[in-house]
C-alpha cells in the first residue's frame, strides 16, 4: 500500500473519531467478549489509539492474555476499529498524555506505578457514515500482519439495506 493511500485513510479515520471523547473497548476473556467505555487520548491519530487504565483492572489482564481488541466509536458516524493492544508503562508517554481530568477520574497521578497505557495498533477500520453504506479501511493491515494489502479488500464499499 502506498504511503499516500495510507495517509489518506489515516486522515479519514482521524476526521471520523476526532470529536468523540469516549469509545467502547472490547477485549477477549475466557467467557467471551467484554466491552467497556474508555476515554480516548487527545492526540493526533497516527494509526495508534491510546487509553489509560490501571493494572488491577480486568482489561489489563485480558490484554496480557489476548492482544486482539476492537474499539467502537459512535458519533456523527459509527467507526469500528480492529487492532492489537499492548500495555505501555513509559513514564514520559504517560506524562505527555495525562490531563487534569485524569487526576479526578483515576484518583491518582500519571507517575503512579499502577497507571499504564493501552496502545492499540490499528489494523483495520470499518465505518458507517450518515447514509446507507459501509466502507472498510485497512491502512495499517500490512504493517501489523505483514500480509499483502490487496488481501484486505482496501476501501471496499458494501451497499446495505436501503
From TrEMBL:
<dbReference type="Pfam" id="PF16242">
    <property type="entry name" value="Pyrid_ox_like"/>
</dbReference>
<dbReference type="InterPro" id="IPR038725">
    <property type="entry name" value="YdaG_split_barrel_FMN-bd"/>
</dbReference>
<dbReference type="InterPro" id="IPR052917">
    <property type="entry name" value="Stress-Dev_Protein"/>
</dbReference>
<dbReference type="InterPro" id="IPR012349">
    <property type="entry name" value="Split_barrel_FMN-bd"/>
</dbReference>
<protein>
    <submittedName>
        <fullName>General stress protein 26</fullName>
    </submittedName>
</protein>
<feature type="domain" description="General stress protein FMN-binding split barrel">
    <location>
        <begin position="9"/>
        <end position="147"/>
    </location>
</feature>
